[in-house]
Amino acid sequence: MKALTLILGREIRLALRQIGDSAIIVLFFVLAAVLFPFGVGPEPNMLARMAPGGVWVTALLAAMLSFERLFTPDYEDGSLEQLALGPAPLEMVALAKAAAHWLTTGLPLMIAAPLIAVLYRLPDAGYGALLITMALGTPTISLIGTIGAALTLGSRRGGVLLSLLVIPLIVPVLIFGTAAIDAAIGGFPVRQHLMLMGGFLLGALVLTPLATAAALCQALE
Amino acid sequence: MQMISDFIAMGGYGRFIWTAYGTAAIVLIGLLIISLRELRTTTAEVEALEANSPRRRRTHTGDEDAAT
Amino acid sequence: MIQQYANPARFNRLAKTLMPWFAWPAGILIVTGLYFALFNSPPDYQQGDTVRIMYVHVPAAWMALFVYTSMAISSAVGLIWKHPLAHLSAQAAAPIGACFTFICLLTGSLWGKPMWGTWWVWDARLTSVLILFFLYLGFMALHNAFDDPARGERSAAILAIIGFINVPIIKFSVDWWNTLHQPASVVKMSGPAIHSSMLYPLFMMAIGFTLYFGALLLLRMKTLMLVRRACGMSMAQLHQQAAE
User: Fold this and answer.
1) Whole-Å CA distances, B3 to B10, B12, B15
2) Is there a contact between C152 and C146 (Cβ–Cβ < 8 Å)?
């Protein structure tokens, strides 16, 4: 546990030093989201209809951009090897990395999401569900993204390849995230969607550190 | 004649059924042909490498010397 | 090292004996299966002649899952026991599985158009099979993405194991969610729900496809082994030239 907080502290300090990186991701999120009204036209009903999906899809794309730099700096300067040799198990390192990634990328995306939803004129009933699904979904995405980042560490064409691997795995988060918001807008119960998303998060919390650690382990071999 | 055209029409669904069977056949046979060609080219490559591998020839003569 | 050199020789001998046992029955079963499927099986009372697409679609779907499962298992074997042939077989299987998945999606689409009135619906079964297709492509891309082939095969192996989660989801997607796709009618606890005149050609095609996969897998593994050997030899020659 102490190791976790130590690594987490280090990660957050590193990320805060490069706060520009997070800002760029959020900026991309806003810009990509703004493209939709230009593409489909500013008609309010249309925008409100696609608001849940639009916000979620652009958030996912923005998150994709942030994974490539997750392990690469540590891998290149050798500190990843130091972390692997240290007392903390690699699973712990993976979990700390995911947590730091969420705090510096997932959380800002989550805060920016309602602003985008306002631009899309999301019906008022949808905001609560949007925030809850974002709160459950973005950590899952961070966790799954760390697997992709670890698998593609040191590869050619890392970024595109990473998206190719991670996007199929996070499709369920997108499906149930938007379904929950749609249900909330339509006045249907959202409980089951949120339960499923919570299940994904718990499952990812248990399984992804194992997979990421295995991937990191063979990357350092 | 009528029978053949009936058979090809497949109760009006001919174009769906024949496209399905046709593409499946093209994909499976195509994969087989590509795999066979890959095997042939790599076999040729390995044989070419073996033919001009000096180290291999030397060890061979060495073995024969030892035997005689 | 010895194991690595001993195995290919033994594998080649095994492949040589097994190959005719896979290749010939595969051809015979697929051809007779096709005869029954196209000429000698009744049209469905609801779906008419389109039901004939089933004889390609369903075996291809089974193969898509079967090949992925075999790929995940050999990946796990390769990671755990470091058996040199295991990664090779996963690498050889991936393109075959991708082809079967593609055939499954395409024939399904061609079946869906006349029956459901649409080429594609975004339901659980179709989506999860599409994801399976992307997993195959991701596996192959990851395999080739590294300068060090050993690194690529281990990374891809981990991906194959992670992606295995999708296989039970595909299998049970028709039971868990309401979908247009019809539920399983062959593999059921209460016995198959379709008539034997349809069942026989279906099984012929399925076994034929499996044997085709076996033969092609052996052939592709042999090729990959030769590629590896060619790599090693040209490296050795380069070293030799550098030393001289």
Assistant:
1) 11, 14, 17
2) yes
Low-confidence ranges of chain A (pLDDT < 50): none
Consecutive 10-residue runs of chain C (244 residues): their mean pLDDT?
57 86 90 83 73 88 94 92 87 94 92 82 84 94 88 91 88 71 66 73 90 93 88 82 80
C56 close contact with B: CB closer than 8 A:
yes
Query: Are residues C158 and A218, on separate chains, in Cβ contact within 8 Å?
Result: yes
The per-residue pLDDT for A74 is: 84
Decide if B20 and C49 are in contact by the 8 Å CB cutoff: no
pTM, entire model: 0.87
ipTM of the complex as predicted: 0.85
Give Cβ neighbours of residue C99 (< 8 Å, ≥ 6 apart).
Answer: B27, B28, B31
**C-beta neighbour count of C181 within 10 angstroms:** 17
Q: Residue C6 in contact with residue C220, Cβ under 8 Å?
A: no
H/E element, C34: helix C2-38
- A15: contact with C, CB 8 A cutoff: no
> Cα(first)–Cα(last) distance of chain A, in Å?
26
Domain segments of chain B as ranges = 2-67
- Residue C178 C-alpha, separation from nearest chain A C-alpha, in angstroms: 15
Per DSSP, the residues of C67-110 read HHHHHHHHHHHHHHH--HHHHHHHHHHHHHHHHHHHHHHHHHHH
pLDDT of residue C242: 82
What percent of chain A stands above pLDDT 90?
Answer: 30
Q: Which among A111, A114, A121, A129 has a CA at the least distance from the CA of A177?
A: A129
Give the closest of C135, C145, C161 to A152, CB-based: C145
Q: Do B16 and C53 touch (CB under 8 A)?
A: yes
**Around Cβ C197, how many Cβ atoms within 10 Å?**
11
- The dihedral over CA atoms of B63, C1, C5, C10, expressed in degrees to the nearest 10, equals 120
